[in-house]
Predict the 3D structure of the following.
Amino acid sequence: MEYSTFIKFCDIISPKILVTDEMSRRRTGKDAVTIENMRHCLLRWLVGGSYLDIRLSSGISPANFYACIYKCMDAILESEAMAYKFPSTAKELDEATQVFESFSSQAE
Amino acid sequence: MLQIKLPASSETGNVKEYFSGHYQTYEINVQAACDHKFRFAYADLAAPGGANDIAAFKKTQLSQMIQKLSQRRFAIGHDAYVCSKTLLTLFSCVEKDDPSKDAFNFYLCQMRICIEQTFGIMTGKLRILRQPFQIHLKNVGKVLMCITRLHNFCINEGNAYLNSIEDN
């Protein structure tokens, strides 16, 4: 994932996982886990990283690690921008048809 | 098929249902469709690994979506599915001896390989899929949905590898 893509990904899910630092400090006495840190955990875990390594580099507990990644996943699943798009309109179907035709080695 | 760890009896009532006799592992049947840009148009956990493909396919919304396709629009499916007016599958067994049907199979396979490539790109990128899922059974669906959506997002945002394929 390129940097610009990561930033766009952050923008999409940020509103849903945002935690107020002040409220976190009142409840736990510590700052909240940053949004970048949460997404870093999710992406590293999905690309095959072990939670043992990731939680050390992120500085969070195992329980908080899983809480963070599931929170991010919920945000992704709720996001309209990242939803599946099954081609249904005539234009989408025409485009798909033309490209699939070109996959054939003897398409005209 | 999505490989999972042996589910605990507290997670599911029937653990044996998840055992796939073909692959000799515990799995969940995933039904998915992709478009021409290797993006998932649909993906869902359909049934436990012991279920057959056609039974799993009928349980998903994908079968209804394909049935609703307009005239002269077709989806291409694995030969485990039943051929219909909107779903094309390969000719099998003796039928393949006919040269015209064999040619049909050849051209259909050239397009059907798209879904294999889609899964290949996804598992190459998100390598958690290269090993059995070590998570609670109830969260497997959530993780898979998230992975497929992230895969689509990466392609939509421009992936250098895929762009180079299109250029060639």
About this structure: The beta strands of chain B are 2-3, 19-20, 25-34, 40-48, 75-76, 87-88. Chain B has a mean pLDDT of 87. The interface with chain A takes residues 33, 35-37, 39-43, 65, 69-70, 73, 107, 110-111, 114, 125-128, 130-131, 139, 142-143, 145-150, 152-154, 157-158 of chain B (CB under 8 Å).
